[in-house]
Amino acid sequence: MASNKKSKKNQTQTLLLPADLGISDSLYATCVTFLFDRPEKDELNGEAWYWSLDADEHEFNPSPIEWVKLQTLIFARCGEDLKRFSDEQVGLGLNYLMSNAVGDASCAAADPSVSIDDAMRMMEHFPTLWRACIGPRLAGVHNRIGYGNGELGYVCYMWFDVWPTFYQNRNKPEWRDAMWRLFVELLSMPCREVQVSALHGLGHEGRYLGRKKDIDQLIYTFVASVASTDEALIDYAEAARQGMVQ
Fold first, then answer.
1. Most C-beta atoms within 10 A of its C-beta, which of 27, 61, 77, 168?
2. Extended strands (E) in the chain
């Protein structure tokens, strides 16, 4: 029992800290509150908080490099720092990071002021968002593909369709390699919704990775691991391999 407590303590101690990235605890705390400590849609007559006329999105304006570092922290610490929020609150906050229709955070990593090292550190921690937050929250979901489970399901399915960050950086080999590693890891996670997201992303972004044979082999291997009764997932995987997803 003591060894388990020690293990959990060590795991907590290894969480990335704001100071590790040169930003303040207060800026990170403000960011988490800004993104996630928000009303759910039913409290705002079905409207997302960031579309409300009373939204305070102009009261929090990090620079591009601060946004990249803040996202790095959110990705790395999501298993602990977001667990007090509901699935809808998490989904709405992540949509703010995912979509440039909502704000500028999704374009921050493509800003000329952001170094490739800072961008790649963000990408290094990106899989944790899926492994420690999205995947566990959607673990029991088995929707028709393309029909998300609320706000979080929408974010999970649409991230690589909507997120502009990789497309803006698609000509950089570091980004292509990082995205390839990300898709490989997401496809290996034991959550069908996350696997669908990876396939959706490969279907849209695979053409830019320069890894046609690798993608073919990855998807062939994945299909071999899928239960034969899940015909929809198998068909979707083949569509993704061909770049024929919507």
1. 77
2. none
| 98-118 confidence digits (pLDDT tens) | 999 988 999 999 999 999 999
pTM of the model: 0.91
| The total number of structural domains that make up the chain | 1
Task: Assess if residue 10 is contained within a domain.
Answer: no
Contact 199, 191 (CB under 8 A): no
* 159 in a structural domain: yes
pLDDT-wise least confident of 38-52, 125-139, 186-200, 212-226: 38-52
Computed on alpha carbons and rounded to an integer, the radius of gyration of the chain in Å comes to: 18
Return phi, psi of residue 155, to 5°.
-60, -45
Inside any domain, residue 15: no
Quick: pLDDT tens for 163-182: 999 999 999 999 999 999 99
Residue ranges in 147-211 assigned as alpha helix (H): 150-162, 165-169, 173-188, 192-205
In a domain, 3, yes or no: no
